Amino acid sequence: MNPYFTAPDTEKFRFYRIPKLLFTDERYRPVSTDAKMLYGLLLDRLSLSEKNGWKDERGRVYQYFTIRQAQELLHFGHEKVCRLFAELEAADLIERRRQGQGRANRIYLKEFTQKADFRNPRSPGIGRK
């Protein structure tokens, strides 16, 4: 039987951060939980990309995260991971830029809080124009 957590135990683990807004905002309701998890993995790597100096000419931070890396972390097959990336792109949460044959795509994370006016409940959401 596993022991219970005590107060000192609560700070000894590293966690992936997934923004609560992805679960609470109506605009992201169509996005699958698996795609939200992938976004959390990408968000976790963002600061490392910035430290590596991976910025484009406009100052936007990008990263390289291959399908295989996502498969290994999420334990999903190739097709499912490809669908998750496509889902994030369709939700306007990422943008992928091809770098040429045999090279990994650049992945730009998009700011999820800037998509609509949160004071206006009738703000357009995903798939609505």
Description:
The longest helix is centred in the N-terminal third of the chain and has 19 residues, at 33-51. The chain is mainly alpha-helical. It starts with 20 loop residues before the first helix and ends in a 20-residue tail after the last strand. Helices cover 34% and strands 8% of the residues. The protein is built from four helices and three strands, in the order H-H-E-H-H-E-E. Helix 2 crosses helix 4 (78-90). Mean pLDDT is 87; it is low at 116-129. It has helices spanning 21-24, 33-51, 67-74, 78-90, and strands at 63-64, 94-97, 106-109.
**Beginning-to-end CA distance, first to last residue:** 53 Å
Q: What fraction strand?
A: 5-15%
Reported CATH architecture of the domain at 24-111: Orthogonal Bundle
| Main pleated-sheet profile | 3 strands, antiparallel
Q: Please state the CA-atom Rg, rounded to the nearest Å.
A: 17 Å
Uncertain residue segments: 116-129
What are the secondary-structure elements, in order, as H or E?
HHEHHEE
Q: What is the helical fraction, as a range of percent?
A: 25-40%
Strand order of the largest sheet: 1-3-2
> Given this structure, which CATH class of the domain at 24-111 is correct?
Mainly Alpha
Quaternary status: single chain
Shape: globular
Structural class: mainly alpha
- Average predicted local confidence, pLDDT: 87
The third-level CATH topology of the domain at 24-111 is: Arc Repressor Mutant, subunit A
CATH homologous superfamily heading of the domain at 24-111:
Winged helix-like DNA-binding domain superfamily/Winged helix DNA-binding domain
InterPro entries: RepA_N
Domain Replication initiator A N-terminal: 14-88
Organism: Hominenteromicrobium mulieris
Protein name: Replication initiator protein A
